[in-house]
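Hello,

Our lab assistant flagged a job as stuck in the queue for most of the afternoon. It eventually completed. Since we weren't sure the result was trustworthy after the delay, we are filing this so someone can double-check. Below is the sequence as submitted and the structure that was eventually returned. Let us know if re-running is recommended.
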Amino acid sequence: MCSQVTDEDAYISCRPEDRWVFDKLLIANKAKVLAAPREIPVPSKGEYIVRPIYNLSGLGLGASKMRLTPETSEVRIPLGYFWSEVLEGVHLSVDYTNLKPSLTVQGIPPKEGLVRWRGWAKIDNAFAPELPSG
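-- returned structure --
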Protein backbone atom coordinates (compact mmCIF):
# COMPACT_ATOMS: atom_id res chain seq x y z
CA MET A 1 0.00 0.00 0.00
CA CYS A 2 1.01 3.67 0.10
CA SER A 3 3.10 5.39 2.74
CA GLN A 4 3.89 8.97 1.74
CA VAL A 5 3.50 12.41 3.30
CA THR A 6 0.70 13.85 1.13
CA ASP A 7 -2.32 12.36 -0.61
CA GLU A 8 -0.89 13.57 -3.91
CA ASP A 9 2.41 11.75 -3.28
CA ALA A 10 0.57 8.67 -2.09
CA TYR A 11 -1.63 8.59 -5.20
CA ILE A 12 1.34 8.91 -7.54
CA SER A 13 3.38 6.26 -5.71
CA CYS A 14 0.50 3.78 -5.30
CA ARG A 15 0.20 0.75 -7.46
CA PRO A 16 -2.84 1.29 -9.69
CA GLU A 17 -4.67 -1.63 -8.02
CA ASP A 18 -4.36 0.15 -4.64
CA ARG A 19 -5.78 3.52 -5.74
CA TRP A 20 -9.30 2.49 -4.76
CA VAL A 21 -8.48 3.87 -1.29
CA PHE A 22 -8.83 7.43 -2.69
CA ASP A 23 -12.34 6.84 -4.10
CA LYS A 24 -14.71 8.15 -1.41
CA LEU A 25 -17.82 6.78 -3.17
CA LEU A 26 -16.31 3.30 -3.42
CA ILE A 27 -15.30 3.45 0.26
CA ALA A 28 -18.86 4.49 1.22
CA ASN A 29 -20.31 1.61 -0.81
CA LYS A 30 -17.87 -0.92 0.72
CA ALA A 31 -18.89 0.36 4.18
CA LYS A 32 -22.56 -0.15 3.23
CA VAL A 33 -23.30 3.58 3.54
CA LEU A 34 -26.28 4.66 1.43
CA ALA A 35 -24.50 6.62 -1.32
CA ALA A 36 -24.47 7.03 -5.11
CA PRO A 37 -23.13 9.30 -7.84
CA ARG A 38 -25.11 12.44 -8.66
CA GLU A 39 -26.79 10.75 -11.62
CA ILE A 40 -28.63 8.34 -9.30
CA PRO A 41 -31.52 10.12 -7.53
CA VAL A 42 -31.61 10.16 -3.74
CA PRO A 43 -34.19 7.65 -2.46
CA SER A 44 -36.32 10.20 -0.59
CA LYS A 45 -36.55 13.85 0.34
CA GLY A 46 -34.11 14.74 3.11
CA GLU A 47 -30.70 16.00 4.15
CA TYR A 48 -27.63 14.41 2.55
CA ILE A 49 -23.89 14.96 2.49
CA VAL A 50 -22.61 15.92 -0.95
CA ARG A 51 -18.87 15.63 -1.63
CA PRO A 52 -16.33 15.03 -4.40
CA ILE A 53 -15.72 11.40 -5.30
CA TYR A 54 -11.98 12.16 -5.24
CA ASN A 55 -10.37 14.86 -3.06
CA LEU A 56 -6.60 14.69 -2.80
CA SER A 57 -6.52 18.13 -1.19
CA GLY A 58 -7.77 16.61 2.05
CA LEU A 59 -10.06 17.93 4.75
CA GLY A 60 -13.72 18.15 3.82
CA LEU A 61 -13.07 20.55 0.96
CA GLY A 62 -16.05 20.64 -1.36
CA ALA A 63 -18.34 18.79 1.07
CA SER A 64 -21.66 20.24 2.16
CA LYS A 65 -25.03 19.24 3.57
CA MET A 66 -27.94 19.64 1.15
CA ARG A 67 -31.68 19.13 1.33
CA LEU A 68 -32.43 17.00 -1.71
CA THR A 69 -35.36 15.27 -3.36
CA PRO A 70 -35.32 12.52 -5.99
CA GLU A 71 -36.36 15.16 -8.54
CA THR A 72 -33.67 17.74 -7.66
CA SER A 73 -30.59 15.77 -6.63
CA GLU A 74 -28.99 15.44 -10.08
CA VAL A 75 -29.58 19.13 -10.86
CA ARG A 76 -28.15 20.40 -7.54
CA ILE A 77 -25.14 18.10 -7.19
CA PRO A 78 -22.03 19.10 -9.19
CA LEU A 79 -20.40 16.77 -11.72
CA GLY A 80 -17.82 14.50 -10.08
CA TYR A 81 -19.64 14.54 -6.75
CA PHE A 82 -21.82 12.00 -4.95
CA TRP A 83 -24.48 12.06 -2.25
CA SER A 84 -24.56 9.95 0.89
CA GLU A 85 -26.68 9.56 3.95
CA VAL A 86 -25.72 11.74 6.90
CA LEU A 87 -23.80 9.66 9.43
CA GLU A 88 -23.87 10.31 13.16
CA GLY A 89 -21.51 9.00 15.80
CA VAL A 90 -17.78 8.57 16.37
CA HIS A 91 -15.38 9.43 13.54
CA LEU A 92 -12.17 7.42 13.34
CA SER A 93 -9.22 8.00 11.05
CA VAL A 94 -6.89 5.02 10.71
CA ASP A 95 -3.49 4.63 9.09
CA TYR A 96 -2.76 1.06 8.01
CA THR A 97 0.70 -0.40 7.46
CA ASN A 98 0.86 -3.79 5.78
CA LEU A 99 -2.93 -4.10 6.25
CA LYS A 100 -2.67 -3.64 10.04
CA PRO A 101 -3.72 -0.46 11.91
CA SER A 102 -0.64 1.59 12.83
CA LEU A 103 -2.34 4.79 14.03
CA THR A 104 -5.96 5.32 15.11
CA VAL A 105 -7.32 8.74 16.02
CA GLN A 106 -10.81 9.95 16.91
CA GLY A 107 -12.04 13.20 15.38
CA ILE A 108 -13.42 15.91 17.63
CA PRO A 109 -16.23 17.35 15.49
CA PRO A 110 -16.43 21.02 14.56
CA LYS A 111 -19.19 23.16 15.98
CA GLU A 112 -20.23 23.88 12.37
CA GLY A 113 -19.11 23.11 8.84
CA LEU A 114 -17.53 20.04 7.28
CA VAL A 115 -14.06 21.22 6.32
CA ARG A 116 -11.94 20.81 9.43
CA TRP A 117 -12.18 18.86 12.70
CA ARG A 118 -11.62 20.78 15.94
CA GLY A 119 -8.99 18.25 16.91
CA TRP A 120 -7.90 14.63 17.09
CA ALA A 121 -7.31 12.27 19.99
CA LYS A 122 -5.07 9.22 19.59
CA ILE A 123 -6.84 6.02 20.68
CA ASP A 124 -5.94 2.35 20.88
CA ASN A 125 -5.56 0.58 17.50
CA ALA A 126 -7.93 -2.12 18.77
CA PHE A 127 -10.77 0.25 17.83
CA ALA A 128 -9.73 0.32 14.16
CA PRO A 129 -12.02 -1.52 11.73
CA GLU A 130 -10.67 -4.33 9.58
CA LEU A 131 -10.01 -3.42 5.96
CA PRO A 132 -12.57 -4.74 3.48
CA SER A 133 -11.39 -7.56 1.26
CA GLY A 134 -11.14 -7.02 -2.47
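-- support follow-up --
The delay was a queue issue, not a problem with the job. The result is valid. The chain has three helices and seven strands. The first strand starts at residue 35 and ends at 37.
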